[in-house]
Amino acid sequence: MDQFNPNTYKKQSTAQQFTGSCLGKIIICAVVAIVLLIVAALTRPSDSYMRWQMEDNIMECIAASDSIESDIIDDYVGNLGRIFTHADSAEINKELMETYKKLNKLEIYPHTFLKTARIVNNIHPEGVRVGVGIFGIVIPTVKYSDLLMNTGAVRGDYNQKLIKDQVPDLYTGDNPNIQPFHYKGNPDD
Questions:
Q1: What pLDDT does residue 127 have?
Q2: Coil, strand, or helix at residue 61?
Q3: What average pLDDT does this structure show over 69-79?
Q4: How many CA atoms lie within 13 A of 115 on its CB side?
Q5: Hey, is 108 helix, strand or coil?
Q6: CA-based nearest residue to 75, from 90, 89, 60
């Protein structure tokens, strides 16, 4: 195509053509992702730092949830704040911390680009994730319900049911032919 005014038309450089193409944008995104993964692998927190931060975050969670029931938004906001704060030793209940250490176990798992922390206890024998360490910071995801903080008997007496019946009598209605466990077997037998 002929140009009417050659001064107004400028040919794009090779770099501008590359960054404007679909393949160029995909390659740029892939390079950025690879660089971020390399930085994540190099800045993964150490096991001791991860354990120290998670113990601190769990102390804050126990202190914040001492006698109140929190919802999911409270947990998210509390965990976001715990990234930047540390537990105050004056507000920590020593008995609760001893109970936590006796009934729960904090385990740190290394991965290629991050580390995860899991709490293992009798409620969660396979463990529940309570924190992620990436880019040199520890992001807590701990909830008070993840922790086992008290133990007690499940049953009162020997051979007592775990779940008691809500309706103790066996009232079956006005029809006398309907009884509990009325099925007597196959009539062909």
A1: 87
A2: helix
A3: 78
A4: 23
A5: strand
A6: 60
At which residue do the structure tokens 């007496």 appear?
157
Q: Which residues contact 179 (CB under 8 A, 6 or more apart)?
A: 172
Average pLDDT for the chain:
79
53-73 pLDDT tens trace: 988 888 888 877 765 666 778
Could you give the strand order of the β-sheet that contains 105-110, starting from the edge strand earlier in sequence?
105-110, 115-120, 128-134, 137-140
DSSP secondary structure code for residue 128 in this structure: E
The identity of residue 130, as a single letter, is V
Reading the block at residue 22, the tokens are 């679909």
* Backbone dihedral angles phi then psi of residue 86, each to the nearest 5 degrees: -130, 155
The stretch 124-128 carries a mean pLDDT of: 87
Q: Which of 125, 123, 131 is nearest to 147 (CA)?
A: 123
